[in-house]
């Protein structure tokens, strides 16, 4: 399918690996020029070089912490006018409700709620003025089914979801859509970190922890960054203009819900 977005320009955050890189690859395959952001200089440069070589699109890389004001300013200055925004940031650490203090919640909100909101506030006006735009926020399946040990993430991502629900309806008349992708477990560094925590706590191997969790997913496997990226690229396509303010699960059926 021709997604109809060749020649568009996208800003993709946390794009040096994992789900962010999967989204960047899929957009580049559709002919989209990219501004890629991540904190790690070497990993970002390697991802950018690989995408340039594979797809022949223009790739600008900006190594910065997108969750800080200074980092966002640098990224936005380099990005200029973009047609597509993909927000993404690593989730806060797991724990128990007794572990977290106000500072922990503020950090989680800054990274996983207020950062994507700030990026949208900066870029939505230009999209609206041009009459076309796409925003995809990478959130979590925990928006649909909270994960007890990820209370910080549950709270921050639920807040972002509420913000998007209202904002998406306000910008839709201008040809701009905002939607959220809710990943379940994908084969990424984040999954490795969570599995490692379980393995250490229960005295089992990392492979055993992975196998145990995969067995709880109806698809009986972890997702891949490539299939996640394909879903992101479709939400950014011309064909997805009637999808507004939705929360789309990519979890292999792990969330057991009718709606």
UniProtKB/TrEMBL annotation:
This is SDR family oxidoreductase. Belongs to the short-chain dehydrogenases/reductases (SDR) family. It comes from the Bacteria. Pfam families: adh_short_C2 (PF13561). InterPro entries: NAD(P)-bd_dom_sf (IPR036291), SDR (IPR050259), SDR_fam (IPR002347). It comes from Rhodovulum strictum.
């Amino acid at each position: 399918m021709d997604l109809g977005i060749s020649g568009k320009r996208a800003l993709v955050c946390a794009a040096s690996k994992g789900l962010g890189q999967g989204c960047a690859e899929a957009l580049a395959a559709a002919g989209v020029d990219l501004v890629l952001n991540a904190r790690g200089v070497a990993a970002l440069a390697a991802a950018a070089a690989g995408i340039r070589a594979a797809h022949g699109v223009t790739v600008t890389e900006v190594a910065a912490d997108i969750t800080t004001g200074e980092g966002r300013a640098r990224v936005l200055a380099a990005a200029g006018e973009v047609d597509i925004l993909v927000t993404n940031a690593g989730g806060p650490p797991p724990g128990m409700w007794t572990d977290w203090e106000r500072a922990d919640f503020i950090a989680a909100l800054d990274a996983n709620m207020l950062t994507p909101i700030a990026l949208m506030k900066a870029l939505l006006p230009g999209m609206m003025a041009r009459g076309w735009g796409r925003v995809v926020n990478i959130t979590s399946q925990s928006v649909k089914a909270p994960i007890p040990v990820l209370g910080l993430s549950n709270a921050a991502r639920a807040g972002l979801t509420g913000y998007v629900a209202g904002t998406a309806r306000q910008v839709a008349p201008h040809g701009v859509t905002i939607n959220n992708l809710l990943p379940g477990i994908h084969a990424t560094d984040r999954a490795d970190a969570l599995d490692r925590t379980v393995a250490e706590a229960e005295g089992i191997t990392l492979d055993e922890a992975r196998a145990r969790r995969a067995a709880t997913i109806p698809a009986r496997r972890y997702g891949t960054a490539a299939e996640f990226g394909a879903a992101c690229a479709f939400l950014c396509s011309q064909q997805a203009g009637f999808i507004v303010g939705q929360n789309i699960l990519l979890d292999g059926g792990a969330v057991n819900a009718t709606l």
